[in-house]
Amino acid sequence: MSTTTANDRDTRVTAEKIRGSGRMKDGRKRSPVSMVVMFLLALLWTVPTIGLLVTSLRTRDAAATSGWWEALWAGGWTTENYSRVFEQADMGNAFINGVLVAVPATIIPIMFAAFAAYAFTFMDFRGKDVLFISIVAVMVVPIQVAFAPLLDIFGPRGLDIAGQYLAVWVLHTGFGMPLCIYVLRNYMASLPFSVVESARIDGCSNFQIFWKLIAPMAMPAMAAFATLQFLWVWNDLLIAKLFLSNENTTVIVKLQQLLGTQGQGAELLTAGAFISMVLPMLVFFTLQNLLVRGMTSGAVKG
Amino acid sequence: MTSSHSQPPLSDDTTVVEADPRADDAPPEATVPDDQGLQPVKLLIGVVGVAFTLWAMLNLFLAFAYYPEWFFNSKILMGALGLVVGVGGAAVLFYFINVAVEALPRRLEHGLIPYAFLLPGFSLIGLMLLYPTLQTIHYSFANADSTAYVGLQNYVDLFGSGAFWSAVINNLLWIAIVPALTVAIGVVVAVLADKLSAGGEKWAKSFIFLPMAISFVAASAIWLTQVYAYQAPGRPQTGMLNAILTAFGGQPQNWLSIDTGRLNSLLLMVILVWLQTGLAMVLLSAAIKGVPEDTIEAARIDGATEWQIFWKVVIPQIKGTIITVFITVLILVMKVFDIVYVLTNGRANTDVIANQFFNQLFARGQAGLASALVVILLIAVIPVLIYQVKQFREQEAMR
Amino acid sequence: MASSRLKRGLVTTTSVAVALTLSGCLQNPDAGAGAGGFGADTEPEEGDGVVTIMGAFGGSEEELFNASLADFEAESGIDVQYVSDQDFTTNILIRVDAGDPPDIGLFPQPGGVMQMAQAGNIVPIDQFLDYDALNASLVNGFLDSANYRGRVYAAPMRMAVKSIVWYPKKAYEEGGWNTEPASLAELDEVAEQIKSDTDAAPWCIGWESAQATGWVGTDWVEEYMLRLHGPDVYDDWVAHRIPFNDERVVQAIEAYGELANEEGNVLGGATGILSTPFGEAMTPAFQEDPDCYLMRQGNFATGFFPEDVQANLDEEVGIYVFPPAEDGYDGQPILGGGDLAAAFTYDTDTIEVMEFLTSPEFGGPWAEGGGWLSPHTTFDASLYVDETTRQIAEMAYNADVFRFDASDVMPKEVGSDSFWKGMVAFQSGEATAQEVADDIENSWPDTGDAATETGSGR
């Protein structure tokens, strides 16, 4: 809250001050206030993660007897946590599993949801409100209530696919769908309706309109949701543990399996948390390019 | 009339029978110039295409499970095929659905196509979320192992328990504080990042986003051990809060047990805000990128200050996304449980409804009470639903 | 208009009705009970060469467990696949409900075994193991913990001993305090001496254990229950034949309170107890100048000691048994726990693995690796990695009575929930011992008493 008010003052000052000051390569004005505020926010947001990084590089004894910020002079550095994670768990296999689970489970729901969101945004039909309400409503239901019936369907008494990637793909597709439809429908609602209207008059089918017009225009929202869904699937513990067999299981499950009966080995989890963060951050870096100005703004202005 | 069915496949069948005679002798509707009436061949192609696609996808997927040796037991091959078939299959499926529906007379086509587009997504939601939800509502009127009805007893028990009301108060606090704070910081970050150079923006956003890459459980552990940790007075403090406090001569505090002013709940909320600002930023940033540059330029030429541009030009155009993010975080907050579970498990007045649900279901095996708690969450989300529908209608009226 | 609204209403109602019909069935209360055909006369099926085991321990314990099975696997040709799950207690239930149980479950809590036995999901061990031989070599009374309605459904694979007092050897011996206190009163004397001789607190106590905070407190109360009132009252208490708010239970909680809440007796006082992770409780005892000296904790505590201490355990750490009360039960009780192996399938391979897991021959490599105790008195003690471990094993083998951790046997509503939370409320001063006991008594489930009635038998 206080950030907003501070911003209030700053931006006004900036507007006057920066006139005539330096410009960036793309011609926009440089904004020192933005730079300073963003730097501070980024720092604040990163401090706990830095703490985690430092702790993951310290011995258990050192972490228990001095704060991580004291590591510079108190010492206790080691890379043993990392080496032990790789020794004790088959991380290579777990990473492959994680990717093989997460990529389809990220893209498939977007595929289905985009069509549904298109229908919700650009078409009129009976029961639209009821269906949309049910989508928002089920989002609030804890997914644990679905485990028992779904294990029946996927387990040995049903399709017998529990333990396979397939089960988890389907599950994440289903559980991610409401939020995906919701996000995409709200984004599509901000797109100009006139484009769709004129395309219809030109005789385009809905399928064509969707593929040629709406899908490209909704790319930022899809990329944004893809980022979130990927993270969610990657970091999921519950579904992976119940629906994936041990040789198909993901990084997060493998990490949890490093713990002993009374939680011995918790210091390995600091290193593990870092190892498991690498890939999501790479994904974010990559998908970020889809979120950048210019790529879509032309289409949106239409 | 057909469009009043909620199940398109059924409608397909009935339509074929009913529409046949019309295709033979009735001329196309005059009001729709390019309506070709029923095109049986196209319809057949569509229906067969849908059936074949579904059959092929299903069997291929099952083959991964049943006959891994067909794929040389290669996980990567199966994963790649899964992706290609999942996405490509979905596209082909929608294509054939579209073909089938287009083959129908115009009026029917218009009525059916929305359901056709919704069907695949909704059948999954129906199976995996709607059905368990209805079952949960049903079980909320039954006993601990869902074997006999107990009427409203679960609700009576809940409303009579002090722990429940304490959790409700906490939930209300979470709802009042976390979504608003997350969205506010998210907007600030998204707007400010937009003003940085491309490289600067990328890095700054990555740092804000960083916590998103950490699982809830790991994040909770980080805050517990790095920030809120307590050591006896006189011993070196390992938590940052206590280290700062003792550096200024204070006594170390066991932060998470201080429920004066629900301070401990507030400290838990900080973690969620820290985690979710990344989400708000990603979605809001995408929206801000969608604000047409010319509207901003126009305002600038009119002499508006940056501040005025922000409030009068940018905010109205991203209002939809702000609401989306707000409600997404709101719903997340309503079912927040990991953070509370790991850090306090509801001790010292920090309990929330979702954590009670988890404890009732798994620690105590009280399926009835747990289901009733879910129903309470469902009731609590009704205002959001009403608002959504109102907004929905407004948006459509504006067209 | 009206008709379209009516139609819409009808559609909605119909679809809701359809969905309700689908979800409108209660669970079959008899489902699973007695199913599986584990009758006494049933012949075991032929095994398929693979036996899956699910347990709660991972990391280095998992490695040593697998190492302990390596020779057996090579000899028998059976492939044993172990999966660890930190949420074993919850997830085993879900897996069983889905019809997808492992072949063998390693239960950290007898409560879970009872639940499975009641539902008829596991095979009684007398059906395929030599019960008498087992009973003869196991620590006295261990098999009772898996007794459901007169039949035993699981056998221990590992033992934990909880009644141990740990101290930093050098500093403690320099202080010249009693290393063999024979009664709780003598132990109190030691504490008083430490307080007067040093600036430090005598006791190191830490309870914090994330969502499970409070279990250390329940162990303390169990120790006092055993010592003040003896194993028979203890069994009555566990099986709910006496109410939880019986005055003897309140007395046991208060006995712990006297030790913990006395000014200067515990490092950090009540706040310190509640917010110190149980694994780090003793860390201040191993400094040059200890901040506290004594910790009562199970044998697994060694895994949390600083690395230099672990590396040199016999020199750095001393132990003695948490002594009996002079005016209470006449004899040395030991509180403990363990992992109980139970079979979900009844085939020749599973039986072979069960036989080996529960035999005194199992666990050599694990004993050499450390952190494991055999529940068999006949186990070759020379295999244990250090003198300290041998001493602990001796404690259990020589005990007059061994009792399983009560909170693991009680219904999980109590044992893994209200008992934990009640102890936290007591320690934080929010509630008196009587109030805590009343609250826990109220949380005792009405049904399910039958499951535990015979739980701890004798």
Automatic annotation (TrEMBL), chain A:
Organism: Ornithinimicrobium pekingense
UniProt topology in membrane: Multi-pass membrane protein
Keyword Coiled coil in record: no
Main localization category: membrane
Family indicated by similarity: Belongs to the binding-protein-dependent transport system permease family.
Transmembrane segments: 33-54, 94-118, 130-151, 163-184, 209-234, 268-287
Domain of life: Bacteria
Protein name (record): Sugar ABC transporter permease
PROSITE patterns in alphabetical order: ABC_TM1 (PS50928)
UniProtKB/TrEMBL annotation, chain B:
Pfam families: BPD_transp_1
InterPro entries reported for this sequence: ABC_transporter_permease, MetI-like, MetI-like_sf
Membrane topology recorded in Swiss-Prot or TrEMBL: Multi-pass membrane protein
Major localization listed first in the record, in broad terms: membrane
Start and end residues of each ABC transmembrane type-1 domain: 168-386
UniProt family annotation: Belongs to the binding-protein-dependent transport system permease family.
SUPFAM superfamilies: MalF N-terminal region-like, MetI-like
Annotated region (Disordered), positions in chain: 1-34
UniProt protein name: Sugar ABC transporter permease
Superkingdom of origin: Bacteria
From TrEMBL, chain C:
Gene3D superfamilies: Periplasmic binding protein-like II
Chain segments carrying region Disordered: 439-458
The keyword Metal-binding belongs to this UniProt entry's keyword annotation: no
InterPro entries, per database record: Bact_solute-bd_prot1, SBP
Keyword set includes Transport: yes
Keywords: Transport
Domain of life: Bacteria
Pfam family, one: SBP_bac_1
PROSITE patterns recorded: PROKAR_LIPOPROTEIN
Family, similarity comment: Belongs to the bacterial solute-binding protein 1 family.
Protein name: Sugar ABC transporter substrate-binding protein
Source organism of this protein record: Ornithinimicrobium pekingense
